[in-house]
Fold each of these.
Amino acid sequence: MSTSVTAAALRAQKRTLRKSMATTLKGLSDASVDEQSALLTTRLLQSPLISRAQNVALYLGMPHGEVRTDALARALIERGKTLYLPRIVPIEPPVAAQLAVPSAPSTKMVMLKIQNIDDLSAIQPSGPWGLREPTLDGRESASTLDLILCPGVAFDRSLPHPQRLGHGKGYYDTFIRSLSTPTTSSHTSIVGRQPILVALALREQLLDAGAVPTDALDVPLDFVVTPMEWFPSEPKSTSSA
């Protein structure tokens, strides 16, 4: 099978899984998502990953189909963590021009620093998806992160590293690779790297091993946390992560 056919087949598999997950997540009640989000927040805040991290990237969940993170964001600020939230911004024209590729992305994701609770509370939904993103306003962008708490459509129980299916734009994969250093760029020794990558998942989003189709551009996870469990195992206080 040619590389182009393989790539096309992979894209089709991802589209099929996204469509299936959209149906599943649409069927969840607000009460279920609220309950799961509260349980997950409690579980996560008890983790040594949180106590050890200072610079933490999070996201503000969409209205439907994602773990709700408002309480988690507030708790992180209250614990003295430096919180960063994502915003999609245009790629500067000189960079796009240098690429000279018709399919080159015109936007990218950056993580912007949130100053305090009031700053967090001021973020309002915008756009067709109701995304809540911090305004630019001269904010400091993240250059060093200890922990990235990321969303996704689906995750799986692959070993040694769980896999993630995003929304198809590649924003998180590209951003994470941009943080790599010469000693961590391979992402093969996952729990020794910085930043540590943790997916926040509703129960319905964590699938069996191999369920998420991936290629070399898909960055694997360190952990998935759900309301009921950590996968592949709960982080230990004695871990070197």
Note: The chain is about 30% helix and 20% strand.
Amino acid sequence: MGALLSARLSSNILKALKLDIPCFLWTDSKITYFWVRGQPERFKPFIKNRIQEIQKLTSPSNWHHCPGIQNPADIVSRGVRISRLLNDTFW
């Protein structure tokens, strides 16, 4: 669902601002990454419909994988103390 939200948001922003620029989309989920870049017909209707919408709104080649361990935004979602963020190489 996060990938679908990202696809909708990026598509709407590009349309609203009338921008014709490449958009890079990232996920820390390998499953989501391979779903988005794969063939929707392989999946059951719920996943298939979401993948089709994502692929309609974005190019599968614009999707990239970032392992959670390398995702600086993921650190904050884990409830890390500010003192750790100050010394973290990503922050």
Note: DSSP finds five helices and two strands in the chain.
